[in-house]
């Protein structure tokens, strides 16, 4: 599969992204915008694309259904009030100032929360992801075993993401929970599309946005007639893992070693 890599500062439109690319993205039913969560440039690109797409709904990995339910256009007008109303500072996500422009650029769009609450993730460790997802778990692929090569690759990514600090049996659980999050995001996107007629934007991490096994793969399974575009975002010298329709590249941000806490 050919992936188009775009350096976002070259050949840009008024919205900061290439004209042809903006036109292609705006023609899809569902557009999945990946990110590295703590990179401000990635959120700036997402905001510009949302302005181009003018979605009827935006699905957030970062918000629960309860958080999304309190959001109104009037509340979106006030960054401080919105942050407090959804208790963003208690969620563990990066600075709300990076995410607020995504809300502000589409104040009339339906906001949909697709987070898997921590208590649900914990329960899934005991009872399985299918029981947490509900009666459509088989339709969304949660009852199927992964192909062996994909399972091995997913386990390796989880091991690296958790700094080689988790036992193998826990890595398997983490893969299952990642699949649960994929399925919840896909279900929420389809629900938003049915409710608003679209287009729908999904804001999520690159891991969920990848076409080979993330949300787009589930959407192609359960709703093959729905058109989907997936945008990954990388940093100079480090493209995101997986397959995407397009990858936008930005400068990296300075970070402390996330594995220090495990040493």
How are the elements arranged and paired?
Layout: E1 4-7, H1 19-26, E2 30-33, H2 40-53, E3 57-60, H3 65-69, H4 73-76, H5 79-85, H6 96-104, E4 110-113, H7 118-127, H8 129-133, H9 148-161, H10 168-196, E5 200-203, H11 206-209, H12 215-222, E6 228-235, E7 246-250
Parallel strand pairs: 1-7, 2-5, 2-6, 3-4, 3-5, 6-7
What report would you give on this structure?
A 7-stranded parallel β-sheet has the order 1-7-6-2-5-3-4, sandwiched between helices. The N and C termini lie far apart (39 Å). It is built from 12 helices and 7 strands. The model is unreliable at 1-16 (pLDDT under 50). With 263 residues, the chain is of the alpha/beta class. Helices cover 44% and strands 13% of the residues. It has helices spanning 19-26, 40-53, 65-69, 73-76, 79-85, 96-104, 118-127, 129-133, 148-161, 168-196, 206-209, 215-222, and strands at 4-7, 30-33, 57-60, 110-113, 200-203, 228-235, 246-250. Helix 2 packs parallel to helix 6, helix 9 crosses helix 10 (168-196) and helix 10 packs across helix 12. It is globular.
